[in-house]
Amino acid sequence: MQNALDSTLIRALGGQRSTILQALAPMLVMIALVLASAMIAPGVLETDSLLSFLSDAAPVVALVIAGTLPILAGSIDLSVAGVASLAGVLVVVLNPIFGPWTSVVVILIAMCFGAAQGWFHAWLQLPSFIVTLGTLSMLSGLALLLSNATAEPIPDNDLFVTWLADSTAEIPNTVIALVVIVALLGTLLRYLRLGRDIYALGTGERAAIMSAVNVIAVRTTIFAVSAGCAAIAGLFLISVTTFSSPTLAGNLLLLSIVGVVLGGTAISGGVGGLLPAVVGGLITSWLRIVTVIIGVQPTAQNIVFGLTALVAVALTTDRSKLGIIK
Fold first, then answer.
1. Dist CA 297 CA 291 (whole Å)
2. How confident is the model over 56-83, as a mean pLDDT?
3. C-alpha distances in Å from residue 172, one per residue of 34, 107, 163, 179
4. Which of 12, 79, 131, 185 is least enclosed, having the fewest CB within 10 Å?
5. Which distant-in-sequence residues (6+ apart) come within 8 Å of 215 by Cβ?
6. Is 50 exceeded by the pLDDT of residue 3?
7. Do residues 324 and 274 make contact, with C-beta atoms less than 8 angstroms apart?
8. Handedness of CA 103, 104, 106, 110 (dihedral sign)
9. How far is CA 209 from CA 15, 85, 201, 300, in A?
10. Average pLDDT for residues 205-218, to the nearest whole number?
11. 168: which strand partners?
12. pLDDT digits (tens, 9 = 90+) for 147-193
């Protein structure tokens, strides 16, 4: 009897240590990357360099957060990069109508689109992969159509975009806005029932339904929030580049997915969170610096990120929950 109790205790402690290590792994990877980069190029740890990095990383981190929420619920949103690109275009196109409040209107439009996307996915029982892949194509085409496939300078009277382009106490306002977003969504996930329902859906939808989780309402909400974060990522981008382009975020979809899984969020859902997503986004952004430092050609960087995504998914997928991999 005592041996059985000891064995149970050992397994429990081993599982606890494994969980702690899994939670700390993304942060340890980030620290290792920074230290390795500093050994090769010490200038990357200077204050100006770090602030510039945070400003450049903010759009990627926002897209990673946008992609994390649906994945936590067992879905996936491939349209986030399309939403970001279209948001930048709409700021220019709609500015003559809405003036200084255009960016706020664009975020609301994006959230309405995301809500519709989530509702179709949940109500019609269509795979989120197919739904969001189709909408990604439509959004990319719409961005090209509205912009006539040309880049345009952003208006100088939009209050939010103008604020994002500035700094407060030398800290980029994009970073401040990102911290506020993480705080608000973190509070939502931790203290509201919606947060528990999201994790319940990701852990097992049938069990969640039996626990009275409103699947349609939850998926509609998380896709709306996801699209809103993606639109804000687009605003981050145009505030940094000072111009709008229909393909501005076109190369960030892979980076956003890599950031999600590098942060420890299981692609199968139910495991992860916002802070791990932020760490994953920072790792992904820092990887871009590492590839430049070691001399990887820009045309070959996607090879590195693709391999990273495969390894990260292999390490974070809960095969016991999926049963059959297909």
1. 8
2. 91
3. 21, 20, 10, 11
4. 12
5. 122, 201, 205, 208, 209
6. no
7. no
8. positive
9. 28, 35, 8, 45
10. 82
11. 171
12. 888 888 988 889 999 999 999 988 999 999 999 999 999 888 888 88
Tokens standing for 289? Answer: 């610096």
Please give the Cα distance from 186 to 90 (Å, whole number). 28
Determine the Cα–Cα distance for residues 32 and 34; give it in Å rounded to an integer.
Answer: 5
Cα–Cα distance for residue pair 263/272, rounded to 1 Å = 8
Q: Quote the pLDDT of residue 33.
A: 79
Single-letter residue type at 55:
S
DSSP state of 154: P
Average pLDDT, the chain: 82
- Judge contact between 278 and 65, C-beta under 8 A: yes
The two structure tokens encoding residue 196: 């528990």
Nearest residue to 31 via CA among 10, 15, 45: 45
pLDDT at position 249 is 86
Q: Are 276 and 26 in contact (CB under 8 A)?
A: yes
Q: How many Cβ atoms are within 10 Å of 170's Cβ, its own excluded?
A: 8
- Measure the CA–CA gap between 175 and 162, rounded to whole angstroms: 14
Q: DSSP letter for 323, please.
A: -
In whole angstroms, what is the distance from residue 231 CA to residue 160 CA? 12
Please provide residue 171's backbone torsions phi and psi, each rounded to the nearest 5 degrees. -95, 125
Q: Could you tell me whether strands 152-153 and 243-244 are parallel, antiparallel, or unpaired per DSSP bridges?
A: antiparallel
Residue-wise pLDDT tens digits, 237-256: 999 888 888 988 888 888 88
Distance CA 316, CA 56 (A): 27
Tokens standing for 311? Answer: 């390894």
